[in-house]
Amino acid sequence: MNDHSRDEQHDESDLEQLRQRIDHIDSELIRLISERAQCAQVVARVKLAEDPQALFYRPEREAQVLKRVMALNPGPLPGEELARLFREMMSACLALEQPIRVAYLGPEGTFTQQAALKHFGDSAVDVPLPAIDEVFREVEAGSAHYGVVPVENSTEGVVNNTLDSFMDTSLRICGEVVLRIHHHLLVGENTRRDRVSRIYSHAQSLAQCRKWLDAHYPHAERVAVSSNAEAARLVRSEWHSAAIAGDMAARRYELEHLAEKIEDLPDNSTRFLIIGNHDVPPSGEDKTSLVAAMRNQPGALHDLLEPFHRHRIDMTRLESRPSRHGVWNYVFFIDFKGHQDDPLVRAALEEVRLRAAEIRVLGSYPVGVL
Ligand SMILES: C=C(O[C@@H]1C=C(C(=O)O)C=C[C@H]1O)C(=O)O
């Protein structure tokens, strides 16, 4: 036997042993995961015994579980990967308690679907809807437990439809998800790649890739459609067209990548909100969103914001939108760190309430973990 074959023999028996060890670990994991799932079933019974209308999904608890997993992670898997595995495990456990229906801005293949999956995991039932206000309506009507809508993009700013929908809803924000957005130039298999004369995408995505398009396809017609998934669907049957969309849409519509990561800013990301019909208890690291209408007098905005500053509350966002009642009246959307049950936040909110014409807390919710 030469050295080489002895080495190989050694490798083979090593491999055999390692696989036996992995089988043994898997058996242990199966036992533990099943024990975890049984525990979740008991949790469901406890919740129901306390309240027949019990909420099974607990965003604050899920955020704590994920953060704990990342803190305990000894490696070699990155914390986010380990948390992703736990995300799926919780999703499956929750489905045993109650299958959760999640409406999102569709069609299938949108970044919003990707955000919904990232937040709720694979075991949630997803319901694609064609418009943001329909997502609000579906959750208001109780046909879906939760909804997922985009609210702001790091390159292009706010999604006005979402902010406007919050003006006339009683729904609450139950969570947030931030997604890194990578755009690709996609084509169907029969497309003449050198003859692309039209590029479809959502207006925001076209804007996020403007410089790249100017440099690479200055003469192609840019056509804005209702979503990037819709763009992907359209180009399947068009020989001279390409779509700008993400990986979900590429997979869903079996498209090929002509160019990858064509967004102008490399850290392009979008924030999505989870909407539901209940308040979320504190998780330990929360944000609060509110909408306020100002009194129509000089210094009103300063007066409105001053209590946040004095109570040292960290404001993370301020947006204004025209109010739909009366010309030139504005409402403000304010996000800040902290939970509405925190004594400091409560004190600030009481003062703000006296200074604003109207304020409505849209929700306190866990800061996005993944
Ligand atoms: C098990 C529970 O119910 C659900 C499932 C969870 C889990 O699997 O860890 C966590 C929160 C809830 O969404 C719970 O509330 O603890």
In short:
InterPro entries: ACT-like_dom_sf, ACT_dom, Chor_mutase/pphenate_deHydtase, Chorismate_II_sf, CM_dom_sf, CM_II_prokaryot, G/b/e-P-prot_chorismate_mutase, Preph_deHydtase. The protein has 370 residues and is of the alpha/beta class.
Structure write-up:
The protein has 370 residues and is an alpha/beta fold. 43% of the residues lie in helices and 25% in strands. Strand 3 and strand 4 form a beta hairpin. The longest helix is centred in the first third of the chain and has 48 residues, at 3-50. It binds the ligand C=C(O[C@@H]1C=C(C(=O)O)C=C[C@H]1O)C(=O)O. The site of the ligand C=C(O[C@@H]1C=C(C(=O)O)C=C[C@H]1O)C(=O)O has 12 residues, from helix 1, helix 2 and helix 3. GO terms for molecular function: chorismate mutase activity; prephenate dehydratase activity.
The number of helical runs is 12
CATH architecture of the domain at 279-370: 2-Layer Sandwich
Report the strand count. 15
Strand content: 25-35%
> Helix/strand-derived class?
alpha/beta
